[in-house]
Amino acid sequence: MILFRCLLLSLLVFPSGAVIAAGAVGSGDMAGGDGGMNVIAAGIFVVFIVATLFVTWWAATQTRNAKDFYAAGGRISGFQNGLAIAGDFMSAATFLGISGLVFARGIDAVIYSLSALVGLCLLLFMVVEPFRNLGRYTLSDIASYRLNKRLIRGFASITSLAVVIMYLITQMVGAGALIQVLFGLPYESAVIIIGGLMVTYVAVGGMMATTWVQIIKAVLMLLGVTVLAFGTLHYFDFSVIGMYKEAVATHDLGERILEAGTLLQDPVSSVSLAIALVFGFIGLPHILMRLFTVPDVRQAYRSVFFSSCFMAYVFILITFVIGVGAITILNQHPELFEPSGRLIGGNNMAAVHLSQVIAGDVFLGFISAIVFATILAVVAGLTLAGASAISHDFYAGVIRHGKATEHEEVRITRIATIALGIVAIGLGILFEGQNVAYLVSMVFAISASANFPLLVLSVYWRGLTSRGAVIGGSIGLFSAVSLIILGPTIWVEILGNEKAIFPYQYPALFTMPLGFISIILFSKLDRSSMAVTDRETFDELYLDMYLGQSVKEKVAG
Amino acid sequence: MHYENIHQLLEDERFRKVIRKKQRLPLLFSLAAIFLFFGFVLVIAFAPGLLAVEFGEDGVIKLYLILSVLLIILICVLMNLFVTLKARDNHDDIHELIGILREENER
């Protein structure tokens, strides 16, 4: 039960490797078959690295100013950016985690697929246009548009950085363990390789390279999932009904794998998880940045729409074909299970094992390489978001009072990227073998309870003040962190206490409304002179948000 | 732009009307998506039995499966519809209004 809960928690992260960390450590080597490194997987992976490094070098020649660096100069097309956004959402845990969870508990895991899609959908409806019209890169850019710049940038850079570092730790730990299993490399070298590549992509190529790495990976992922799903259906002579019948006959839960309620027993946890996933997605810094790599609002819309199509396609195949098919197919191969009945490498390896059973070692190598590429692409995006929080928000906004030159800012971003890389490698090695799933819940809870309310209120509510945003946002942040510490995962499973003080694993159902209410309350109570300016400046933001810069100039002219 | 102009524009009833019209679409679509998704989540959480209804003779195609797939597709359709409707909205109303306002100012 405890292991299962860890698995669930870790699934919160779509690009997570934490999932794998929970199961894979110490399970030995399954990929090579003969105990060595999987040569084909390594070969495909080397090709991927060479290709992406070439792209990075090319991107570096294209990058001249800050806009190029943070937003790829706005030169990515809607279709390409759609692939990149889909790539951010479909990662190792979407692919391995969801298929593994369906393999273990049935189609109830569909909530993870749906939440990601709905998060993207709300992003399209509520956030794309105001953000694009305002022409800002990050959450703190938007909030500081009308609020006290130093205060807000200071606060926003702290939350963004906390989110990015926690997320990076889960990625590093998961990736290290996964690569240990897939390629037979030692954990430390795996973490150092990922850290090194990630720093290279971001520091040298900026957003252009990061986006192209994500695009290449998304195409590989679409291809891999398609072939895997086709192979699975082929195994059942293309009879979906037959596949489901056999899965029901094979699985211990029988018919229950097709029913609701196998994942989370209590209703509050289900609702709270859904809230954390949907609104947490919207507040994640590396997703927001993706809206600026395209030339205009229309392309931003197109990109979000394309990404939803790719995601729906991949989610349907992973959940309803690959996961369900794996139940029957893998259970016919007893050599894939340990004597205890556990799948070698844990349930998250279901899709990887499936690829080997269906199409042999070459395909196994291809799928393994996709998984590695996925982790790399996601950590690169995260690092860029974190580095820009340091340089753009903290250095330029707080230390230099907005007087830093673009050139200076990009230089600081590069330095910050290297620093973040070192921190990520260090923490990745420090946390080796530990269950870091709680960090993932924290990331989403913080994002939903502090970032999301701040984001919505700064563009839609005139009454928001700087003081209200910082005090209320901090309350959202600390309530999310402390309720997770007091919850069953940390308080009981890690600290070994008898009973959890806060009974639910996911606090977002309580902390998100708390975040909203406290920001509103402290803004209303704010009687300072700064508050008056804050409210007045809203008019300008409001106008820009609905008119865009071009129309505004006409009014002025 | 001068500060007085912004307030003047913001308080203009015609401008407010245009903005309200612009806000309607995103609001409607957001509510629809939230309603659909959280409605489904509430059923999963509080009445999972409802989703166990079977279709066909084989007993494996249940309402849960059908609704999940439908919902995934429906969300994509909603997004497509939104993007299509947005593409038609070319700032025309606002441009028109700004033209009128400038003429008024010149007089």
* Sequence stretches where pLDDT stays below 50 over 5 or more residues of chain A: 1-36
Q: How far is it from the N-terminal to the C-terminal residue of chain B, by CA?
A: 19 Å
Distance between the first and last residues' Cα of chain A: 67 Å
What is the average of the pLDDT values of chain B? Answer: 81
Strand content of chain B: under 5%
Average pLDDT for all residues of chain A:
82
Runs of chain B in which pLDDT lies below 50 for 5 or more consecutive residues are none
Number of helices of chain B: 4
Specify Rg of chain A, calculated over alpha carbons.
23 Å
Question: Into which percentage range does the β-strand content of chain A fall?
Answer: under 5%
Give the strand tally of chain B: 2
Helix amount of chain A: over 70%
Query: Number of DSSP strands of chain A?
Result: 0
Q: Choose one word for the global shape of chain A.
A: globular
- Number of helical segments of chain A? 21
